[in-house]
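Example 299, ligand fe (ii) ion.
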Amino acid sequence: MAPSTLSGPADVVRTYDDASWADDGPTRGVETVVESGHVLAFPRLAFTLSDAERRFLDPRWADPKAKNVSVRWPSGELRGAAGDAGDLDALRALVVRFAEQSEALALRLFPHYRGHLRRGNTSFRPTDVTTRIRSWRQDDTRLHVDAFPSNPMRGTRLLRVFSNVNPNGEPRRWRVGEPFEAHARRYLDTIGRPLPGAAWLLAALHVTKRRRSEYDHWMLQLHDRAKGDLEFQRTSPQAHVDFAPGTTWVCYSDQVLHAAMGGQHMLEQTFMIDTADLAEPARAPLAVLERLTGRSLLA
Ligand SMILES: [Fe+2]
């Protein structure tokens, strides 16, 4: 059984031999591994495209105005794609199949989450990661934890399943960084409390979809401090990881310091789960930040 403490970036990735998405795969019950900040990598777990589907491995299917091609749930609606109706139906079927296989995998790996895991967006990214950079805050080639200004999570976790479907042998190149608690301690003394009334105002103006908690304030500050700190980007503990085509990997992207350095053609499924429904809630960013600040951050 894999030990479940994270000692440093070189130790972040745990590799498993599974070659099946379905219930017959060997790995199960690894909640504490992923919850302690590891990336679970499956180099033999390819997401298979039919010959006819390979035509979608081309940026021309992505609407240039959209960030990704995606399927939203629960509606199952396809967004961000350009093409005629027949092609879009086939593209949607591909993305939906990835959502279903990812969900089966997640529920096998993490049976504790059964009944609690909620399916978020499924995205297909046929464009090169480095062509989408618009500002330092959106620059995902910088190490960061995921946090979104308009979408307060209020302690809900972001569990993500990624699969590299590149047809040209090109890896998805990541950097991974220091453990979450070390990262939070790095900026602890420089992050102040949110301004009184700010969360109410952002919600009233519909800048945020719901009221931003102090937890969200912290997560956004950590995201922005890390991306804005070039010294941190250059000198903090980190490791380079290549995910070859045919590899699937799973992590909590609100906990694992990560940066996408290169690659093209990937599928990604987001799941959400409340901190209270984890196997070990005390390891979650919410619990770590509440311990460090000494107060409740969901008020
Ligand atoms: Fe990210």
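Summary: The longest strand covers residues 118-125.
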